Amino acid sequence: MGKAFSRLRHATAMHTDRRIRSTHAVISAMRAIKMFTWEKLFIGILEAARKSEMAVIQRKALLMSFNTSLFGTLTKIVVFLILLTYVMLGNPLMADKLLSPGLPGPVFQAFLTIALINSVQNSVSVYFPMSIIMNAEVYMTCARLQKILEMEEKDEVGRIQHMETQLSPKVSL
Q: In the UniProt record, does the keyword Transmembrane helix occur (predicted)?
């Protein structure tokens, strides 16, 4: 599930970057676009980019809703499977044998199992998947920041200082 979220996050980032670059190019060339009446063409390009971006976002939302829907049902399924395994191993789960000498009875064990599973329900059903999703988000963000930080630096300061020395005449007395 975490890998699926990571892939969808990466795909969303790529589509968003492509759409933002296209939008920036359109805004930068607005005068030429207006002059040659290419508005409809570029609107179509931007709408297609947004449509593909939204398709990835919708897939991510569908996966998130599936993950959220597991919250209520997963604990009940786990309790059922544990009790089914307990009974299939030959242990009776009857109320008339509630207390064995010195040991809690099977019904007590069943209720204890249900209580323990319900106590960790939020941790297992909500917080653990959320941590996987957030870790995938952090990983993607760090990977994108790493690309930015590894880009070649431009020496803007040196160029500005060079321009200032060319513009400033030497004055001597």
A: yes
pLDDT tens readout for residues 32-65: 888 888 888 888 998 998 999 999 999 988 988 8
- Using the Cα atoms of residue 61, residue 66, residue 69 and residue 75 in order, give the sign of their dihedral: negative
Alpha helices by DSSP H, listed for the chain, are 2-28, 30-35, 39-88, 106-119, 121-122, 128-149, 156-167
Give the count of domains, the chain.
Answer: 1
111: nearest Cα among 129, 127, 99? 99
Answer yes or no: is 131 within a domain: yes
Share of the chain above pLDDT 90, in %: 6
Span 135-148, pLDDT tens digits: 888 888 888 889 88
> At residue 167, what is the residue type?
L
Within a domain: residue 151? no
Q: Per the domain annotation, does 100 fall within a domain?
A: yes
Closest CA to 78 of 126, 124, 109: 124
Q: How far apart are the first and last CA of the chain?
A: 76
